[in-house]
Amino acid sequence: MNSVPEGVVQHILSQMSNARDIASCACVSKRWKDSIPFLPSLYFPRGVFDGLPRADADAAISHMVSSALCLEELVIYCPFSASHLASWLSLRSHSLRRLELRMDCTAEKPAPCRLDAIGSAKNLEDLKLWGVSLTKSPNWGVLQRLRVLEIVGAAVRDTAIKDVVQACPKLVELALLGCDGCSSVYIELDSLEKCRLDFLGSANSSVHLSSPKLVNLELQGFSWIHVNERHSLRRLSIAKTSGSVYKVDVGKLPDLEYLSIRGVQWSWNAISSVLQSGSEVKHLLMKIEFTGDLDTLQPFPQIDLVDFFNNHQKLCKFEIHGAMFAALCQKNSLKNLDSRFSIPCLEEVLVTVRSPLNPLQKLNTLESLVKYSVNLQKLVIRISKMRNCHETADEFFKQICKFKHMNHNIVHIE
């Protein structure tokens, strides 16, 4: 290493970011220590200061941040005193581009005002926060250069979320994950392309989105959903693990490639609205157990197989779970089948069967999928949590195995 040019030494050492490795290298020689100002990234893992007093850990972070004159990325997962954050960020406010903080392991309970310090880092492009409190709006001013914002495990309030979004007008990616305490989320961002909103609890919360460049949208935990018709959605995922989904208004989805709708209970109007909007979808996943309004749990109404596939001509991959498959297997679901009907684009189907009831109708539906799907390559039948363990189930399994034997190149059983 002694014969390596100075710039090459600096370049090699700049590939490191782990604070412990950097501290070790600084002890090797003065030449290596002199390369620390050129470090672009500092990463403090969760246990990097285990066994040290908190004051010593804070002092070590302060020393390394002040030494790295060209610091672009700062990631702190280890416990630290939130009161020092303002001084660290002010030291590197001109060069810092990416900031990631675990606020849930700070020495003291982080008050909302501790986040105000982030506003001094005006050149931030990527910000990720864990375990913060957003019950009050942070004083960030306007972060014009911020493109990516991710907040995980936060206690939030409606007005604070709204103010945070307004403080980041140029966001391209937004993720609010595992957040709790919000009843209504309103987001209006002209540059937003990817959005992930995951809110906890069974409360009936709502979300309103207006982003003309939106391409990828994932929503979890909302009962009322409205997306402005001006968008470019290609991937849409809507889920609610507790409570109900009452209304979904997303406008037309002409460019949609992937649609996932999941939950225990959706109103039938919400399901119909999404399926109608996503008539051009190529990959559809449906995992909803019941329909019905309020506390009334009802099964899916009958769905005509011919009408469904005529309204989803471009469907290439279809994943059906339980209730949706049962709706396609009602007595009159196949009444419109004739020799002129075909499913043109369907290549792969995954069916989850949870009950052996109506075995004849289910078998007829599976046979129809194979017969009329001219490009079908794979049909997977997944038997999951079969509740009825008696002769009906035995007969159902026997018929399924026979069906697989007759279509062994296409049909698979899990």
TrEMBL record:
Gene encoding the protein: LOC120263305
Lineage start: Eukaryota, Viridiplantae, Streptophyta, Embryophyta, Tracheophyta
Domain F-box/LRR-repeat protein 15/At3g58940/PEG3-like LRR intervals: 86-219
Domain F-box: 2-36
Pfam families with a match to the protein in the record: F-box-like, LRR_At5g56370
Natural source organism: Dioscorea cayennensis subsp. rotundata
Gene3D superfamilies to which the protein is assigned, alphabetical: Ribonuclease Inhibitor
Protein name: F-box protein At1g10780
